[in-house]
Design goal:
heterodimer, A: 176 residues, mainly alpha, disordered C terminus, B: 196 residues, Rna Polymerase Sigma Factor, Chain: A, Arc Repressor Mutant, subunit A, 2 domains
Chain lengths: 176, 196
C-alpha cells in the first residue's frame, strides 16, 4: 500500500473521487488485503466519531464464509455516469455558450440569405435536405440494431425482458 | 453548503455494486464493512437480543448479495439494503413466534442516517465498559491531533461537509483539505488500531 493509494482511499470514503477513479482504486483494493483493512478501519473510525460505538461487531468473516458457495455474478458492464468535476463543468458551460453562438450566427446568415433573394435561400435549403436524408436503409437498420443491443443490455441488468427491439427491427427489414 | 453524505456516497456505493455484479466478490466485503454497524442499529430497534441482532444482520447481507443482480440503482444502495434488513428482522421475529413491531419503519434516502439508537442497548456491563473505553480513546486521539488536522476532520466527519466547502470555510486549496483529512485519519488510525 502506497501513501497516494491510502490518500485516495480516504478521498473515496468521502465520495470525492469520480466513478472512473473509484473503480480503478477498488480494483487495487480488491487485491490488497492491507488496503481493504484500511478501508474497513476508516469506516469504523467514522462510525466512532459519529457516536456509533459497538465494540466487537464485525460480521464480515461470517458473511464471507456464507457467500463462499454463492455464485459469482458476471453481468455486462454498465458505463458509469460521468460525474462532472469543476473543470468539466467549465468545459460544458463553454460548449453550451459556443453552441448558442453558432446557432445565432447560422440563423442570422439564413435570415440574411432569405432577405437577399429566394434563389440563395432555396439553395441553402437543398443542401440541408441532402445532408438530412443521406442515410441509406441498410445503415438505418444497422442503427436500429445498435439501439436494440443497448436496450437488451439495459433490460438484462434491470431484470426485465427486452421485447420491443426485435419488432422494430423486423419492421425496418420488411420496409426495405 | 453541500454534504458528501448523499449523492457522492451513493455514487461510490454504485461503483462497488457494479463491481460485484461484474464478478468482484471482494467489493461486497467492502460494502459489508461500510454498512454493518448502521444495519445493526436498524435491526437493533426491532430485535432486542444482541446475539440475534448479529445473525439477522448477517442474514440481511446474504439476502442482499443474492438479490444484487436485480439491483438497478433506482434508489440508493443503502436504502435498498435497509429495506432488506427490515424484512429480515420481521421474518426473524415471525420465525421466533414473536410479534413483529406493528409500526412500519419507513426508510428514505435522507433519514437513514438519523436513527440514533445503539445496537441492543441491553448490553452486558462488560460491553458498556468496552464502549466507554472506546469512546474515551476516540476523544483522546481526536484531541491530540494538531488543530488544522482536527478542524478539517471534524468538518468532514461530524459536519459532513464536502472537500469543496471545507476549502471555502478554511480558505485553503482543496488539495490541502484532502491531505489534512488523510493525515488526520492516519494519525487517529495509529492510535486506535488496537480498538478497530
Amino acid at each position: 500500500m502506497t501513501e497516494p493509494q491510502h490518500q485516495a482511499l480516504s478521498a473515496l470514503l468521502d465520495g470525492e473521487l469520480d466513478a472512473e477513479q473509484a473503480d480503478a482504486l477498488l480494483e487495487v483494493v480488491a487485491r490488497d488485503e492491507t488496503l481493504a483493512a484500511a478501508w474497513h478501519r476508516m469506516h469504523r473510525m467514522r462510525d466512532l466519531l459519529r457516536g456509533d460505538v459497538e465494540p466487537g461487531l464485525d460480521i464480515r468473516e461470517g458473511v464471507r464464509g456464507a457467500l463462499a458457495d454463492e455464485p459469482t455474478y458476471f453481468l455486462p458492464a454498465v458505463a458509469p455516469a460521468p460525474r462532472l468535476t469543476r473543470w468539466s463543468r467549465y468545459a460544458v458551460g463553454g460548449a453550451l455558450a459556443a453552441s448558442v453562438a453558432l446557432v445565432t450566427v447560422v440563423g442570422l446568415r439564413q435570415w440574411q440569405a432569405a432577405d437577399n433573394g429566394p434563389e440563395l435561400a432555396s439553395a441553402d435549403a437543398r443542401s440541408t435536405a441532402a445532408v438530412a436524408y443521406s442515410e441509406t436503409p441498410e445503415r438505418a437498420v444497422d442503427r436500429l440494431h445498435g439501439y436494440w443491443s443497448v436496450h437488451a443490455d439495459n433490460a438484462l441488468l434491470a431484470g426485465q425482458d427486452a421485447f420491443a427491439g426485435p419488432v422494430r427491427s423486423v419492421s425496418a427489414d420488411a420496409a426495405q | 453548503m453541500t454534504t458528501h453524505n448523499s449523492t457522492d456516497q451513493a455514487d461510490a456505493d454504485l461503483v462497488l455494486v457494479r463491481r460485484v455484479q461484474r464478478g468482484d466478490k471482494r467489493a461486497f466485503d467492502l460494502l459489508v464493512g461500510k454498512y454493518q454497524l448502521r444495519v445493526a442499529k436498524l435491526v437493533g430497534r426491532m430485535v432486542s437480543d444482541r446475539s440475534e441482532v448479529q445473525d439477522v444482520v448477517q442474514e440481511a447481507f446474504i439476502k442482499a448479495y443474492r438479490a444484487l443482480p436485480n439491483f438497478r440503482g433506482d434508489s440508493a444502495f443503502y436504502t435498498w439494503l435497509y429495506r432488506i434488513a427490515v424484512n429480515a428482522a420481521k421474518n426473524h421475529l415471525v420465525a421466533r413466534s414473536r410479534r413483529p413491531p406493528t409500526d412500519d419503519i419507513d426508510i428514505t434516502d435522507g433519514d437513514v442516517e438519523e436513527a440514533g439508537v445503539h445496537v441492543a442497548d441491553l448490553g452486558t456491563p462488560e460491553s458498556f465498559a468496552a464502549r466507554d473505553q472506546l469512546q474515551a480513546a476516540v476523544a483522546r486521539a481526536l484531541a491530540e491531533l494538531p488543530e488544522d488536522l482536527r478542524t478539517a476532520l471534524t468538518l468532514c466527519e461530524m459536519e459532513g461537509l464536502s472537500y469543496d466547502d471545507i476549502a471555502r470555510v478554511l480558505d485553503c486549496p482543496i488539495g490541502t483539505v484532502r491531505s489534512r483529512i488523510f493525515r488526520a485519519r492516519r494519525a487517529m488510525d495509529a492510535k486506535l488500531k488496537p480498538f478497530l
